[in-house]
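Morning, I've got a small favour to ask if you have a moment. It would help a lot if you went through both lines with me. I owe you a coffee for this, so here goes:
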Amino acid sequence: MSTTDFPNATILGYPRIGPNRELKKAVESYWKGASTYAELNAAAEALQDRTIDRLVELGLSASDSSIPADFALYDQVLDTTAALGALPARFADLAGADGEVDTDAYFTLARGDKKRQPLEMTKWFDTNYHYLVPEIGPTTTFRALADRLAGIVQRQSARGNTLRPVLVGPVTYLLLSKPEEGAPEGFDPLDRLDDAVAAYRGILAQLAAAGAEWVQFDEPGLVTERGSALVPLAEKTYAALAGDKEYDGVARPSLLVTTGYGTAGDIAAPGSGLAALAAAGVEAVHADLIRGEVPAAEQLAALGETRFVAGVVDGRNIWRNDLAASLRTLVSLEASVPGAISVATTTSLQHVPHDVALEQNLPEHLPGWLAFADQKVAEVLTLSKGLAAGSAAVEAEIAASDAAIEHRASFAGTRVESVRQRQAALTEQDFTRAPSAERDEAQKARLGLPDLPTTTIGSFPQTGEVRKARAEFRAGKITAGQYDEFLKAEIARVVELQEELGLDVLVHGEPERNDMVQYFAENFDGFSETVNGWVQSYGSRCTRPSILWGDVTRPEAFTVPWTSYAQSLTAKPMKGMLTGPVTILAWSFVRNDQPLGETADQVALALRDEIADLEKAGTAIIQVDEPALRELLPLRAADQPAYLKWSVESFRLATSGVRTDTQIHTHLCYSEFGEVIAGIDGLAADVTSIEAARSKMEVAADLAEFGFGRGVGPGVYDIHSPRVPSVEEVESLIQTAVASVPVPQLWINPDCGLKTRAYEETVESLRNVVTATESARAALLADVTA
C-alpha cells in the first residue's frame, strides 16, 4: 500500500440532506407511504450524483478518492450498525436470512414500532447532531454486510468517480454503544472488539472487491477522556485491519483514520495517538488542528512515512478561514512531517450548511465573513495549492481573507460599548436567588398545584396550517393583523385542548415560533438568520442555526404578549417560555473572536430583560430551556469545570432577577445527565424537566444518588418517535421515578416539545399520560390512608 497516492486536498464528509433538503423530503414521503422504496432509492441516488458532481465542479478530483462516500439515509452510526448486522435481540426478527438489515428494518431501529422503542438517541460528541446508540451484548452477532456501501462505490465508479467509503471506526463504534439490556454487570461493549474487528475485515474485503482504493475510518472516540486508554486498543485494531495486503486476492484498500473533535490520545503529548495508528500500519492519519492541539515536531517525526492529513479548515463553524495563518501552520508542519501532508477539514462538513451563495437575504456586511460547506471546499483547495506552490500562488485569496477579517473586526455592531459596560458592572448578587426552601414555600402558596403536577415542555404540533400562515405572512400575502388573529386562534385552541386533557400547568403552544433559537435570534440584535442554512440534527430533522456575529441586546419585549394572551384564557398557570443562553449559543453559529462565556453573558442579560417583563405581566412560571447544556461539555475532564462555571453562571444571570414566588423551570434533553448533574443542580432552577422515556428512566438512579433536592420532571413520553406510549407503560415509568424521587419534587411531562409530532398521536399520548398520573395519585392516596 502506498501513502503517496492519497489526495493532497480532501474533506472528511459533506452535508447529506441536500441544498433543498431533498433527502428529508424523500425519506418522509416514504415513511408516510406516499412513495415506494424504488422512488426513495432513486431520490437518494440522484442526490448522491448531484453532490459528487458539485464537489468535482468545486475542484475536488473525481479520480483520486478525495471525495468521501458518506451518504447515510438517517445516521452514520446506524449505517455502521447495519453494515455490521449488529441488531439487538429485541430487533432480531427484523434481520434477513443472512442477517442483512433492509430499509424498513433500518428505519424501525431509528423510529421504533408499536411494540418496541427505537434505539436510544444522544449527542454526537460535543455537537448538536444526534446519533442512534448501538446496543451491544455478549452474544451480539457481527457480520460483514456492506452491500449498500459497496453498491455506492460501484455505481459511482461506473460514472467515472472513485470514492472513499466512510465508516465509524471499530473503537469509536463500540465506545459509543451501550450494553444491551440483560448484559452481565460490568460488561463493556468494547469487550467485543475482536469480534467486531473480524466483521470490519470482512467489510474491507467487500469494499476491496467493489473497487475502493481508500477507506476512511472515523475514530473521534480517541479524543475523549478515555482516549489515552483507547490508544492501545486502536493500535491493535488497526494492526489487524492493515496487516493483510490482500483480501481474497484483491489488494486491500489503503486506510485513512480520522480523529476529529479534539486531540487523539494523551493530551500532554499531542500526536501520541497518531503515532500509534501509524505504527499499526495505516496509510494516513488525520488530526483536528482547530479543536485539538497541533502535534509537536517530535510527535510528527514518529509518523514515519504515514501521510499526515491536517485538519485546518473548521468543519463545525461558518466563519471564513484565516488563510494566512492556516498556511503558516501547514508550512511549519511540512517541515516536521517525514512523509507527505494533505490539507483537510477538521471534521465532516455535515455540521454546516451547503452554500453561502444560496443566501440572498443576509445583511450586506455578512456574506463576506462566512464559509459554508462549498466555500470550505474552496478553502481546502486554496491551502493545498499554497502549500504546494507557495503563498504567492494564492496571494489574491489570502488578501481577500485578510480584508474580510479586518472588516469583521471593525464593523459597527461587532462591539457595542453599552453592552460591555453592563457586563463590567455585574456583581455576585446578579447571579444569586433566595434559598431553595424559601422559594419552594412561596411558590406552593402562589400556585396551589397537586402532587405529580402535569405539564408539557412548551411547543405543540406545528400543523400545515401554522406553517402556511407563517409563510403567507412572510410573503406579504396576509397582513400582520390577520397573522396575529390566526395565532391567537391557534393559541386558544391549544389552551382549550390542554384544559380538556386535564393538564395542570399549561403552555401557549408556540405557534409564532419557527424554531426555539431562531425566534430569539430574530428578536435580538447581534444575530442574523439564514433562509437555506439547513443542518441535519437527526434523521430527517433539520435546523437552521442563526448566526451570532455581534454584541447582543434585546430591543423590546416579544414573548410577553403571547404569554399574557394565553393566560387570559385560563385560570390555570401559564408558563412563559424562553430558550436559555447556552442553548442559544450551542444551536447557533457563534462568533469566534471572543470567549464563549462572554457571549453567553450577553445573551443572558438580554433574556434577563425579557424575564423581568414577563414577571411584571403576572407570569408565575417561567421556563428557560437549556437542552444543550450537556452538548457543549468539553470532551476532556480537565476542561469541564471552566465550561460548567460560565454556562451555569449565564443561566443564573438570566434567571436570578425574579421574585421568590416566581417559579423558574428549565428543560434538558438527550444527554448523559449523570455526567453533568452537579452542573444541573448548579442552575438552581426550581423545576428541571429532563429526557427519560427512551432510556427507561435511567436518570432516576442518578438523581437519587446525587440527592437532587428541587423539583424534577423526568420525561414519561418519548416525543422523538411517532409511537403512542400505553397507560401501562407510562405508569411503569412513573413508578420507577417515584421510587427514586420524593413525590413533592416530582413532575410529570413528556421528554421534549411536541412541535414535530402530529396532533392525533399527541392527544392520545397526553391523554394516556394524564390517565397514568391520576392512577399514580390514587395509588399514593391509598398508601397514605391504608
Q: What stands out?
A: Residues 473 and 479 are 6 Å apart (CA to CA). The first helix runs from residue 22 to 31. DSSP finds 26 helices and 23 strands in the chain.
